[in-house]
Structure formats: structure tokens, C-alpha cells
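stage 2 :: seqdesign
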């Protein structure tokens, strides 16, 4: 006690709440035991942690009492989550503490995509490392990349994205993440005009580094420095990475990486994918041997108008050096800027200020000179997202992937699917059936995009299909996939109850149940709305089911597993854990400390008792979550999205990269959906209309 008073009266040894003060040892144990010393032997930090656990326990009691996170209520009242609308302390800032290490792994790239979809940008030092690696990788590539689509697969060709990250995520949701059996070609114009050019470029560079033989990036005219300096990308870089904190360096690194992008990709030896077009003298051999890094657009010289044109001041010194080589570099300008037109021949493109317009005879001549069968290009916004300017199946097609371009038009976006050489439109890889439809079921009614002439074509070099989508489909598919994840989580959490119900209904012990009986028992155990499961049959039973009248229920239950099986006892309380962590994140960093994580686990154990016994030892929970959570614990913070990812339910046969489920990693890992579910419902829930539309995907 004397020592404690001395510390209180001495500034140097002033007793602080976060440092425990211990009394001098007393020689009389009985006297010491009789005096509890509650204010001396316990630290202020311990008291604060107990107060936090108590507050979290009260929050849990209220949530459990009102059933806010019950599956039935969330499925009925499911609503889309606008960014920043539901976090208790506001939307997390646009940075993350996650370390982006090279060489990239599948897990690190998917974590990056999840962070970007949550509005969290990686720190500049990690962006610099990624861009340096991308520049070195792209510099080794030829001007024209070559890829033969594997048998039974299809390559996805994505047109202009223009900084519309939502459209990129929609394509990934629809087709799955890139993989060796799921190649992608991104055909230029990744940046400008849209609000998320940085996010789009980082995602594409990361996938290209991870899968250089399956992800191909072509250069577009907006990857030219003189263009993206004027149309928004430079301003976006400076806004997201402040100039005084290295934003100018970030923009410069992006620009240098863009200069090394290849000019075209040749698929199956017959389909040339490039951004703009061709001219009357251009050949494939010319395009392959030109020094692409030396190209710079010179609008004034091409038109002979004397106007300064689209020339950034940084480029003026280089223009004199390349003026002598302008004619030699003309094929690059054509590949980036030219547009098709109805009249034969070539004409200056007065609308763009550079490049040429070329007719069907010019396109046919180029194909004949180069021994090719089709040109697949982008560069132009078209109403349906794709267009055959010379007639269906003739010479050249346009694909444009930015729906509602720049927020000013009502155009659809689209992507193209090209099968292997000799493939037919009936091949599963080119199937237009939505995710929820059964493989053996009849094709759904044709949408306006599918009815348009030219949406499909069969060629000797492979079947070709265009898939259109509009801006309204983006939230519908997002809601649908989140609903799928909810049902998958419920199936895994109640696996034992479902198995018992199936076995009781299977009186002959055949291991099979009629579809209607399986559906009735599943709905009874999960307590889902009556009309929810029928549209989900393909998702729940898998494509191998094939529309059979019976269901092998053991195989059905075996399709669902947890990303980290050791955390299975925690699955029923996952949503509560995410909600508690979000409430503890007062700094809006998207992460919590290890002490805060322990407090949330203790609150769960206090509320649910032995059923949540794993939460009694938070250190074991962190250890089971693997290296990502372990690294965050060592660095003093644990990302909330990382915790949600470790508790993600994976479904065999669903689109994804390797064993990763798309719906578990995109769109903030459903964290916002959990937070929104805990909020009071509006007077007129939007879940009804969203649910009806969300049961179909593009």
C-alpha cells in the first residue's frame, strides 16, 4: 500500500490504469487473503476487457431474442447492401493491413480481390511491388500472344471495362475466377471514366502474374499515357494515393506497366483479339515485330490539322524521336484506334481525332493476308454489348463489357465465349443455362439478348457465344449468390439433423429419396420459405444430378464443407462473431486486435455455453484459421473479412478458382449482409422483389 501511494504521488511512477500495480509481499497469508486488493491486483485493461465482454453479451442477447440473424428471416427479407450503409462506425477507409507478398499465390490474389471489392486499397509499397513485377512480366511477352483453348473448355473474352469494377466482378461471378481450365482475355481499356480504374487494373495485373498462361491482357487506346492523363485515371490515382504520399509515383508505375502490354491475342490460331481494328496495309507479321513500347499517339500529325491533339506534356520530348518512325508504327495505331464502317476502303476518323475507319473489304483483306478467320475487337460502346458491323458471322465482331457506360447510357455489357477448335454450341463450356437451372432441364425462355441475331455462331475454329447483361443484373446476381451461401451454410450447420430426417423418410434404406420428398424434408429441417428451394436444385444437388427423379442424400450432404474444417463447431455462430467484430472496430479499419477478438469469442461462449466451447480458447480459434489470421495476430490486427473467409462454406462443383467459392470471396464476403440483417427492417422490405429477381443469374 505504501508503494502504491508512492507511485501515485510521484509523476515518474504515476499509477496508470493499463499497468497493474502489485503490493509488497505480506508475511501473513491470512491477512493477505482477507484483504482482496481488488483495485491494486487487477489492471485497468482487464476491467476494460470485462466491460467489453459484458456489452457484447448484452448485444448478443438482444440479437438472439429478436431472431435478427435467423436463416428464415434473412432469406425472406434479404436486401442488397450498398457500400458503407451498414457498418456500425462507418465505412472502413480505403486501405488494409494485409501484406501482399510476391510471388503471388491464389489465396493472396483472392484476398486482394476481396479487399478491393470492400473498398480497401493495399498500401502503396505493395502496389509498387505488384506493378514492378507486372512490368517485368509483360516486358518478356511478344506483341501477339497465342493460346489454344483446351478441349472441353472455353475462353472468356472481356471488352472495355473503363474502371467499372462492378462489371468485372459480375463477369467473375458468372464465369468463375481464372484458372488453367478457365482462361480469360481482357481486351484493353481497363481505365478511365469509371470510378474504380485502380481496382480494375490491380485485379487484372494480379491475375496475370498468378496465371500468365491463362490470363491475357491486351493494350487499349486508354492505356496510352496521353489519353488516361486526360480522361480520369491520373486524377483517380492522385485521389486514392495522395501525390505528397506517393500518388504520382503510383500513376507513373501504372503508366510504365501499360506501355509493356501486348497488342493482341491469337486464339486457336484463327481468331485475332485486339482492341481497335486493322487497315489496308497491316499484316499480322508487322504487328508482331514492332517496338510497342515506343508507340505514342500523335493526333495532330495523323490528321494534318496542326492542332496540339491528345499529347501529354511528358510525351512531347518523345514525339520528335518517333516522328520518323510514324509510318512504321502505324499498325499499332490501327490496332488501338481504328473502327469499322459500312463504306468500303479506309477513311480518317474525324470523330476520334486519330485512327481510321475501315470497311468490310479491308477486314476481309487482312484476314486473307494473315490466314485468319475472325477479328474480335472492342473499343466501341454498342447497345447490346456485342455487334456484327458487317453482318452476323462476317469478318469482325465487337464486344463491350461496361454496362451503362460511364453512368450516362443504357447500353448492356457483354462478354464472348470461344470454345476449343471444332467445339459446338451444345458443349457444356458454352452452355447459356443460368446457375440455378438443372442441366437436364429445358432451356429457359430466351432473353432479348439471346434472341438478337448473331448471339451465337459455329465456326471450324470453335463455337462462339456472346452473353449480354445489363446494369440491373449486377445486384440481382449478387443477391442470388449470397442467398445460395446462406442456404449452403445452413445445410452444413445442420448436416446431422438433415441426415437423420432423410434416413427416417427412407424406409427402405436405399440411400435415395424422391426429389419432392428430399425437398420437403430439407425445407422442414432448415425452416426455409416454400418457394426457395425449387430454383436452387441445380446449385444444391450439383450438375451431376442431371434432373434425376431421386436424390442420393449422402452425396448431397457431402458436397458441402467448410474452408477450415477445424472451425466446424463455430459455424452456427459465424454471423454473430462477424457482427461482434464489426461493432468492436471503432477505428473503421476493417480489423480488430487480438484482445478484441478474444473478447468477442468470450462473449459467444458466455451466451451459448458448451455449444460454443471452441470460443473458450480464442488462441486455438486463431491457430485453426491458418497463416492469414496468424500473421494478422502477430502484427496486432485481424481483418474481419479474413475471419469471414475462414468460415466460408465451399460447395463442390460451383464456379471458383481451385477449391475457392466465388460467393465467399466477392462482395465483402457477405459481411455487410450480416450487418444489414441485424438492423431493423424497413416498413416495406425490398427482399421480396430482390428475391424474385435474384433467383436467376445471367
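stage 2 :: out
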Amino acid at each position: 500500500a505504501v508503494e502504491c501511494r508512492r507511485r501515485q504521488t510521484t509523476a515518474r511512477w504515476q499509477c496508470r490504469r493499463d499497468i497493474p500495480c502489485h503490493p509488497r509481499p505480506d508475511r501473513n497469508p491470512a491477512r493477505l487473503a482477507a484483504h482482496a486488493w481488488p483495485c491494486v491486483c487487477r489492471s485497468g485493461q482487464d476491467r476494460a476487457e470485462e466491460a467489453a465482454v459484458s456489452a457484447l453479451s448484452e448485444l448478443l442477447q438482444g440479437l438472439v431474442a429478436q431472431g435478427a440473424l435467423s436463416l428464415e428471416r434473412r432469406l425472406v427479407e434479404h436486401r442488397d447492401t450498398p457500400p458503407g450503409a451498414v457498418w456500425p462506425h462507418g465505412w472502413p477507409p480505403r486501405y488494409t493491413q494485409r501484406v501482399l507478398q510476391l510471388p503471388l499465390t491464389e489465396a493472396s490474389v483472392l484476398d486482394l480481390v476481396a479487399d478491393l471489392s470492400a473498398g480497401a486499397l493495399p498500401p502503396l509499397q505493395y502496389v509498387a511491388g505488384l506493378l514492378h513485377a507486372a512490368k517485368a512480366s509483360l516486358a518478356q511477352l511478344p506483341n501477339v500472344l497465342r493460346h489454344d483453348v483446351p478441349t472441353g473448355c472455353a475462353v472468356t473474352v472481356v471488352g472495355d471495362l473503363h474502371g467499372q469494377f462492378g462489371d468485372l466482378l459480375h463477369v467473375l461471378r458468372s464465369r468463375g475466377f481464372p484458372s488453367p481450365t478457365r482462361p480469360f482475355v481482357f481486351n484493353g481499356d481497363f481505365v478511365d471514366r469509371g470510378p474504380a480504374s485502380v481496382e480494375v487494373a490491380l485485379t487484372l495485373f494480379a491475375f496475370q502474374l498468378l496465371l500468365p498462361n491463362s490470363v491475357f491482357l491486351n493494350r487499349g487506346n486508354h492505356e496510352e499515357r496521353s489519353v488516361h492523363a486526360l480522361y480520369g485515371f491520373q486524377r483517380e490515382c492522385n485521389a486514392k494515393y495522395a501525390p505528397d504520399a506517393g500518388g504520382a509515383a503510383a500513376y507513373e508505375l501504372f503508366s510504365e506497366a501499360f506501355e509493356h502490354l501486348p497488342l493482341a491475342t491469337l486464339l486457336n490460331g484463327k481468331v485475332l483479339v485486339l482492341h481497335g481494328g486493322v487497315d489496308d496495309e497491316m499484316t499480322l507479321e508487322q504487328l508482331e515485330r514492332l517496338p510497342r513500347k515506343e508507340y505514342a499517339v500523335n493526333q495532330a500529325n495523323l490528321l494534318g490539322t496542326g492542332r496540339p491533339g491528345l499529347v501529354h506534356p511528358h510525351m512531347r520530348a518523345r514525339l520528335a524521336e518517333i516522328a520518323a518512325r510514324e509510318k512504321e508504327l502505324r499498325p499499332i495505331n490501327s490496332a488501338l484506334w481504328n473502327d469499322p464502317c459500312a463504306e468500303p476502303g479506309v477513311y480518317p476518323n474525324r470523330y476520334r481525332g486519330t485512327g481510321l475507319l475501315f470497311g468490310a473489304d479491308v477486314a476481309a483483306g487482312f484476314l486473307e493476308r494473315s490466314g485468319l478467320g475472325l477479328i474480335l475487337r472492342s473499343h466501341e460502346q454498342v447497345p447490346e454489348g456485342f455487334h456484327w458491323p458487317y453482318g452476323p458471322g462476317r469478318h469482325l465482331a465487337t464486344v463491350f463489357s461496361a454496362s451503362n457506360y460511364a453512368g450516362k447510357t443504357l447500353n448492356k455489357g457483354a462478354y464472348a465465349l470461344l470454345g476449343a477448335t471444332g467445339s459446338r454450341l451444345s458443349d457444356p463450356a458454352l452452355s447459356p443455362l443460368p446457375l440455378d437451372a438443372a442441366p437436364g432441364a429445358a432451356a429457359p425462355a430466351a432473353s432479348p439478348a439471346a434472341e438478337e441475331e448473331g448471339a451465337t455462331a459455329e465456326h471450324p475454329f470453335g463455337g462462339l457465344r456472346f452473353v449480354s447483361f445489363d446494369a440491373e443484373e449486377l445486384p440481382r446476381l449478387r443477391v442470388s449468390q449470397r442467398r445460395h451461401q446462406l442456404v449452403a451454410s445452413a445445410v452444413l450447420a445442420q448436416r446431422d439433423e438433415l441426415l437423420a430426417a432423410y434416413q427416417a423418410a427412407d424406409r427402405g434404406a436405399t440411400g435415395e429419396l424422391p426429389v419432392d420428398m428430399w425437398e420437403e424434408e430439407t425445407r422442414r429441417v432448415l425452416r426455409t420459405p416454400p418457394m426457395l428451394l425449387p430454383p436452387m436444385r441445380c446449385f444444391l444437388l450439383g450438375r451431376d444430378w442431371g434432373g434425376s427423379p431421386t436424390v442420393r442424400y449422402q452425396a448431397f450432404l457431402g458436397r458441402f464443407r467448410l474452408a477450415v474444417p477445424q472451425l466446424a463447431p463455430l459455424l452456427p455462430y459465424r454471423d454473430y462473431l462477424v457482427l461482434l467484430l464489426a461493432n468492436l472496430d471503432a477505428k473503421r479499419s476493417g480489423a480488430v486486435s487480438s484482445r478484441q477478438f478474444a473478447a468477442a469469442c468470450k462473449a459467444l461462449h458466455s451466451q451459448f455455453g458448451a455449444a460454443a466451447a471452441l470460443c473458450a480458447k480464442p488462441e486455438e480459434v486463431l491457430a485453426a484459421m491458418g497463416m492469414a489470421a496468424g500473421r494478422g495476430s502477430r502484427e496486432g490486427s485481424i481483418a474481419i473479412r479474413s475471419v469471414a473467409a475462414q468460415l466460408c462454406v465451399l460447395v463442390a462443383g460451383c464456379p471458383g478458382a481451385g477449391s475457392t467459392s466465388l460467393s465467399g470471396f466477392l462482395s465483402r464476403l457477405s459481411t455487410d449482409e450480416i450487418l444489414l440483417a441485424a438492423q431493423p427492417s424497413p416498413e416495406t422490405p425490398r427482399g421480396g422483389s430482390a428475391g424474385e429477381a435474384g433467383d436467376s443469374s445471367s
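stage 3 :: structure notes
- The mean pLDDT is 76.
- The chain has 31 helices and 21 strands.
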